[in-house]
Structures are given as C-alpha cells and as structure tokens.
Amino acid sequence: MLRKFAIIGHRAPSSGKLNLNDLAGSCGRMDVLSRAINTALFLSHGIREDTEVMLHLMGGPGPARRILFQGSRLRGVHPDERAIAGQIGKALREPVPSIGHFIELHPGFLHSGGNIEQTIIEWKRDNVELCVLDASGELFEPKSHSQEKIGFLLSDDQPFSANEVEMMENLLVVSLGEKWLQGHSCIAIIHHLMDSQ
Ligand SMILES: C[S@@+](CC[C@H](N)C(=O)[O-])C[C@H]1O[C@@H](n2cnc3c(N)ncnc32)[C@H](O)[C@@H]1O
C-alpha cells in the first residue's frame, strides 16, 4: 500500500534563503519538518519506496509552495535533517510553479504551487484514502484500511488553522492515542503499525 504524508509547515518559508544554521528559529521550524521527512522516507539502510511526502511551505514570502518527495525515485537526498533542509533550500531559490503543475528538480524531488486544499483535491482524484491525524480522532486501525493508497495529513508544531480545519471537513480523523505526540513520532508509529500488518 502506498503511504503518503502531507505535512503543513505554517511558518516555513516558501521562497528565499534558508539559514541551515538556524533551522529551529528563523526557518519556521524547518527542523521539525526535516525530521518528519527523514522519519517518513528513510530506513536504517535504505529508503522506503512505498512512501511519499508532500511538504507544504506556507510561510511566504509570496505564494505557498509544495515539495514532493517520492521514495521510489528519490536520488541525492540523504537521511540527515540538515541535508534534507539543504535540498529544500535549493528549491526555494526557484520560482514557485503554478498550482498543480509539478516540476522535477531532480529524480523524486518535485515542487509545485498550492496548499493543503490542492493536495486534498489531487489525492481524492488519485483515489487516496485520506486520514487527518488528530489525537481526538478514532483510533487508527491499519487493518480497516484496505485501499491501495492511504494519505495522512499532519501539522508541524502548531495546530491546524481554522481555515485548514474547514478544508479538511468531512475527512476521516484518526488518532494514535490521547497524548499529543511530535509529528515525526506519529509517522514512525504509522509505519510500525502498517509494517506489522
Ligand atoms: C506536534 S503535533 C501538533 C501539536 C499542536 N500543539 C496541536 O495542538 O495540534 C503535530 C501533528 O501530529 C499529529 N498528532 C500528534 N499527536 C497525535 C495523536 N495522538 N494522534 C494522531 N495525530 C497526532 C497531528 O496531526 C498534529 O498536528
């Protein structure tokens, strides 16, 4: 089953220069986002070919940008948070492509314009089963999800905004337990639950 993760970086810059020495500060918690990407894509030795990550950079300046990492094709990205942020930084120097138009910068590393609403539209069109991750949802049971593609939506260190909650209305909300966890931990738990199936 293809696993997809949509991660929203509310303050993460969508253009300009990333300061790799200050990922947790001036880069809109790029440390949190890179950690989540690292956990989603990398095994101890190798890459998860069954996984994709759509990172949403919402902090401006200018239009929002999405970066798509495709585990099955990804080359040139290493399992290191700073290196992942470095790759993202290279994309930020390029103009933001139009919404829904993906440009490949190198194999398995693409970018496009758009926000989470656009990702939801694209995933629905592609028959992805959508699950919003939220501690207050119904407990996530992998065996009740038999679709070929499953997509999880999660936020950074901030809650989903009211606007995002509206965009996610009517989607299934799943929980990994009552305690609020860090995003990368949620991703690790999902991989574990699905690997154990
Ligand atoms: C660090 S948490 C965000 C915490 C933020 N203060 C909030 O209230 O949403 C990052 C994301 O992980 C997911 N998450 C955290 N704990 C979870 C849980 N127990 N079950 C499901 N998803 C969870 C949610 O999608 C959340 O947006």
Order of helices and strands: EHEEEEHEEHEEHEH
CATH topology: Alpha/beta knot
Bound molecules: S-adenosylmethionine
What is the strand content?
25-35%
Shape: globular
CATH architecture: 3-Layer(aba) Sandwich
Strand element count: 10
Strand order of the largest sheet: 6-7-5-4-1-9-8-10
Rg over C-alpha atoms, rounded to the nearest angstrom: 15 Å
Q: What does the largest sheet look like?
A: 8 strands, mixed
| Overall pLDDT level | 97
Unreliable spans: none
CATH superfamily descriptor: SPOUT methyltransferase, trefoil knot domain
By DSSP (H or I, 4+ residues per run), the number of helices equals 5
Q: What is the highest CATH level, the class?
A: Alpha Beta
Provide the structure class.
alpha/beta
Number of domain modules: 1
Helix content: 25-40%
First-last Cα distance: 11 Å
Account of the protein in words:
This protein is 27% helix and 28% strand. The chain has 197 residues and is of the alpha/beta class. The strands form 2 sheets. An 8-stranded mixed β-sheet has the order 6-7-5-4-1-9-8-10, sandwiched between helices. A two-stranded antiparallel ribbon has the order 2-3. The longest helix is centred in the C-terminal third of the chain and has 13 residues, at 183-195. The model has no long low-confidence stretch (mean pLDDT 97).
